[in-house]
Amino acid sequence: MNTMNKSSSCEEGEEDVKDFLDILLDVSKDKDSEIELTRNHIKSLILVTELFNNPRVLKKAQKEVDRVSGNQRLVCEEDSPNLPYIHAIIKETLRLHPPIPLLIRKGLRDCIVGGYKIPKGSMGCINIWAMGREPTLWENPIEFRPERFLEGEGNTLDVKGNHFELLPFGAGKRGCLGMNLALRELLAIIGALVQCFDWKMFDSEGKLLSYGTPIDMDEQPGLTVPRAHDLICVP
Q1: For residue 41, is it left (φ>0), alpha (ψ between -120 and 50) or beta?
Q2: Which of the four pLDDT bands, split at 50, 70 and 90, describes residue 4?
Q3: Secondary structure element (H or E) that encloses residue 41, with its range
Q4: How far apart are CA 197 and CA 65, in angstroms?
Q5: Which domains does the chain have, with CATH numbers?
Q6: Within a 10 A sphere around the Cβ of 14, how many other Cβ atoms?
Q7: I need a surface site. Which of 84, 172, 225, 229 has the fewest CB within 10 A?
Q8: Phi/psi at 137 (5° precision)
Q9: pLDDT tens per residue, range 153-201
Q10: Helices (H) and strands (E) in the chain, counts
Q11: What number of other Cβ atoms are within 10 A of residue 133's Cβ?
Q12: What are 92-104's pLDDT values in tens digits?
């Protein structure tokens, strides 16, 4: 997400253009800031792109948050049990956009996987990005549809490493240590973003997108899977 803010550089007469992520990182490093902004907060702001790209889902999330808060207060972590649709949005986002695309593990002993012998010491790469788009595991896998986690067997799926088709935080002893904190903060931050703001979207050239116009969701290759093109939005 980009803003048009500019800040003066140390050298007079020069300007340093800062995007939204730069500003968020500056706030997170500011010890005198009135609020504490962590990297988990920043990640959650970036994750809401799919909500902007799906107005139906965004409106449904807003209704759930309004129902729980009664329009009298901000949604908070204690509201978690009463926000199943927000939980489903987080799961669906992590299915399509896991924080890292690959899990890498080293075999501690000889084993057989799918009829193939894997010698001890072999490095195995598990493509969790592809698993989230596998049509034998997911119906219409490219469609962003949080309801899949509220229906049938999908209602029992979690992201904590218990279900091999959904491993955004890894699994076992090498799973992400910050998973529980991240999930709590994601729910509170995303809930607040949909509760407090309506959003206008712009393309990479700054042109206002009409309501419901698809947003480019292409990603770059790498250790993580960042967006290929900036998201420009105004609350």
Answers
A1: alpha
A2: very low
A3: helix 39-47
A4: 12
A5: 1-36 (no CATH), 38-234 (1.10.630.10)
A6: 8
A7: 172
A8: -105, -30
A9: 889 999 988 898 999 888 888 888 888 888 888 888 888 888 888 888 8
A10: 7, 8
A11: 13
A12: 999 998 888 888 8
